[in-house]
Specification:
The chain is mainly α and 294 residues long. It has one domain (3-288). 76% of the residues lie in helices and 0% in strands. Helix 3 packs antiparallel against helix 7.
Length: 294
């Protein structure tokens, strides 16, 4: 099979895994685990797995100046990024969260343009404005309240998308220099060092003995499939495509997330949400148009 097809299949698998992740993670947080505790479990276990995987490849010496970039990638890609995700998911719905995450290609473009890695065109600027308009409508659909509704949770998910986009842009040059296993083992190690000290109290406060089997399976899915497998496949794909192409596949996440959420009875879909989703996707389409894929 051609490499291009394999890259696209890998990114599609990532989309399927993460589409289901919204409903599965929502089942665990905050009823069984608080956001920081979930982040600690996610980064700790994944760190061990990535270091084990890295041992199967030749050891690479990372330059000192690149460690500072790895620390920044860890901050945006595995520390505050994951806290924003779980905190937001605990306060909003799976469908809302997945729709807001479709703005990641827009965020990738803005970060890349800010760092002068990509040039803004009139079409892309229009796409940014259209996409942001759709997000604003979705955020304020139930009113603007920090105490009620999904507004606060949606804001956290939006911050999650922005920080993940920053990670995608920052990590790209590292992926060109080192093997993806080398990059991921250091990114997750630094991320774990950042999050374990601040989240350990929530880990100890969880009533682990009361977890039903479904909670353990859900936790395993989020840690193994939606973290280890997803980051590994994304990192591999970044060797062959631009970060904006990886972001484009998030475009499909709401479709899978909606199907899973509705099937599980965890969410409802209304006409306004569909309309706002189409506005967001129109913006993403304009941002992604004329982008070279592979």
């Amino acid at each position: 099979m051609p490499r291009t097809a394999l890259v696209y299949l890998a990114l599609l698998l990532v989309t399927l895994i993460y589409g289901a992740n919204y409903t599965i993670a929502k089942y665990v947080v905050p009823e069984y685990l608080l956001p920081l505790a979930f982040v600690v479990m996610r980064v700790s276990v994944s760190t061990l797995l990535f270091w084990m995987v890295a041992r199967t490849f030749p050891t690479e010496k990372v330059r000192r100046r690149d460690h500072w970039l790895l620390i920044r990638c860890a901050f945006f890609g595995t520390a505050i990024n994951q806290f924003f995700y779980f905190k937001g998911l605990s306060l909003t719905t799976p469908i809302h969260a997945s729709l807001i995450m479709t703005t990641t290609p827009i965020a990738v473009l803005m970060v890349a343009a800010f760092l002068r890695h990509e040039r803004l065109t009139m079409m892309k600027i229009t796409g940014v404005l259209v996409g942001l308009a759709g997000v604003l409508l979705l955020l304020t659909k139930g009113g603007v309240s920090l105490e009620n509704g999904t507004f606060t949770g949606d804001l956290f998910i939006l911050l999650n998308g922005i920080t993940y986009a920053t990670y995608l842009v920052l990590v790209k040059p590292l992926m060109r220099t080192y093997h993806h296993a080398t990059v991921l083992k250091w990114v997750f190690l630094y991320g774990a060092l950042m999050m374990v000290p601040v989240g350990l109290q929530q880990v100890f406060s969880a009533d682990w003995s009361s977890f039903p089997d479904l909670t353990w399976w859900s936790l395993g899915y989020v840690v193994l499939a939606a973290t280890f497998v997803v980051y590994l496949l994304n990192a591999w794909a970044l060797n062959y495509v631009d970060s904006s192409v990886v972001g484009i596949f998030i475009y499909l996440q709401p479709v899978f997330a909606t199907i899973v959420a509705l099937a599980a009875g965890e969410d409802q879909l209304d006409l306004l949400t569909v309309i706002y989703a189409l506005i967001i996707m129109a913006g993403v389409y304009l941002v992604s148009k004329r982008n070279k894929n592979v």
